Each structure stands twice: as C-alpha cells, then as structure tokens.
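#onboarding

Welcome to the new folks! Below is a worked example of what a typical request in this channel looks like: someone posts a single protein sequence, and someone else replies with the predicted structure as tokens. Don't worry about understanding the tokens yet, we'll cover that in week two.

Example request:
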Amino acid sequence: MFQTVIFDLDGVITDTADFHFKAWQALAKKLGIFLTEDFNEHLKGVDRTESLRRILSLGGLENDFSKEEIAVFEKEKNDLYITLIDQVNPKNILPGIDQLLNDLRSNNIKIGLASASRNAPKLLRNLGLYNHFDTIVDPSTLKNGKPAPETFETACQQLGVHSKYAIGIEDAYSGIQAINDSKMLSIGIGDLQTLKDADYILNSTSQLTFDKLLEIWNDKKNKHTIPVKTD
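Example response:
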C-alpha cells in the first residue's frame, strides 16, 4: 500500500499556467523578445530562474545581464504573477482534487506538495487547501530543481516515507522525469506523447480518485513498459 501522494501544483491542483505566461510575456516584451504559447510549454514545471534563462536564450540575450539585473527581472515577473493569482479562489481547484485530498486524509495517506513555484503556499491558501498538506517543499532550499529528482525526494524525506511507497502526480515532462528518477510511481495528467515516460497517464484530474490510485498501485507489480493511458 502506498503511504504518500506527492502532488505538483500547476496543472494538477489548479491551473495558473496562463498567469505565468502573461507575466513572462510582459517581461519578455519589455526585453524585445516575442514569447509564444508554444514556447511557454518549455517553461512548465521549471523554476523561475531556469524559465528566465530559457527566455533570454530565446532572444539571444542569455549573457547580456548581470546577476543583479537577472534578480530584478525575476522579481518583476513574480510581482506581476502575484497580482494575477490574487484572484484565485476555491472555484479554481481542478475537478476531483478536493475529493481526492479528503479521501487520502481519511485513509491516513500523507500528502505532500513538490512544486517549482515559490508562491505555492499562497496559492494553496487562496484555494482553501493549505491545511490538507502535511508538507510543502520550499524550492528555494533545493540545489537542483526539476527535472532533477530532489524536489520529490525532499518531499518524501520531510514526510519520513521511503520513495518506493510514494506516488507522484505531474502534468509536465520535467516533473515526470523527476518522479521517475526518485523511484516513485509516476502518474501523468494530460497528453500521452508529452508524458510518455510516466508509469500511468490519465486524461484529466477528474479521473484521479482514491480507488483509481489503489488500482494503479496494485497493478504496479505488472508494470507496463509502455505508459497506460486511462480513458
């Protein structure tokens, strides 16, 4: 039986990808960089510093700014993002997540958050979900963000649970890599091709139920070499 479920935030508990995109797009425009929604896919699951590096690289400006200037850009983006997420409320919880969190707690399963977002606690409070979580990893304390496994490994350590008894849930390729490398069971939410390395893939969070997690866990002994897409 699994002992913990570790969640990503954006795209799994709520969807703030558009807020991130608008904030990054505004900063990129100021720097003379045109940021498309397609390129934004490369920023999902990636922390703020790495996202900015990729944006600057897109514009050929990766080596044009000092560390101090980079810090100012990061703060500018984050300030705008915080303004945008102030409107987030419990209505923005993705389908099925509220019930799943309640069922996990009822079954004494520990719940963790492994997000690259330093604003995760604020978002959880806005959603009314903060008290559901037994631990929240602070990404600013990590040496290596996703796709490195440290975020998910740290969540397990903070909960006192070995990763082999943990399930990780993600919607981004970098997150699935991190879960797999931490030796947890990985569940992807979304596109089959993007998340092809996940152990199991579900179409949406509405399919994330406690019974479904039990079914997936019990089938772990017969793990498929090709990801299972559950309709």
